[in-house]
Amino acid sequence: MNGLNALKMRQEPKRGAKLAEKLKCEKSSIHYLSILNGNTRGLVWTDDPTAPRLAVVYSYLLGGFQIMGTPLQTAEEYAAFRLFFENKVFPLAKDEFELSEFAYSADTEELSDMMRVVFFFDKELFEQKQLVYRTAEEYSAAEMPFVHAAEGRLMRIRRASESFLRENAEFAGAYLPEILESYKSFADFLKHGFAFFALEGENICGNIISNGEYNGCCIVGADTKAEYRRRGIASALLRTAIEFARERGNEIIWECAEENIPSVRTAESCGMHRCGEFFVRWFEFEPQTPQD
Known about the structure:
globular
């Protein structure tokens, strides 16, 4: 059979545990497994709906793609895979998602090598190393509320809820849209995810939001407003998330760029241990022309 016909990537309208189980490996991203599992929003393409060996998964939240499964074998399959991106994925990314670059990760080094072959001859690839941390086996969270000694300011941490949505306009206006990039509704988010916010009065100083869950592991992202950084807010939020997850029998996964030293220190200060690493690679759809 001709390789161009043998490999046909199809969008998967149905996602669930079986699809995730067939495609996962030890290094699979919890965020993208959550998409495969149907817990969080995204798009999935596979080469076979019943017995998939290769998948391309898109995250609405991250604006990036994950390559999962096993590598292609023949030159014809590589050519068909390239055409799939050129005819389907790239137009979707540029026209519908309004992305200026194609960013992706791969579950294994073999898949990374495959992607280099697919794109090497006419794309300039950039890359950034990401570190993965997970909750240590023994952990004791700090009591809340907390006071930053240098400032002497009392701050409190509040969990996202229906009442918080009604009471805090900043949460409703600035943070709910981000949550809904990953979840179908706020009710769906409360069922599958969680978020905590550091407050000074009613002003949100920082946040930690889960953006995926699979097999008892919750992946989170955190951010602190610039004027409130270096006050221990991110660490306090992460400690709170770890304690909350532990009470539900879950673990926390934390990912950050290797060069993001404050984020690395936050994870390590909360007793998390480094359990893996991967690369995000990308290229621009329309490379910038150097200026004279």
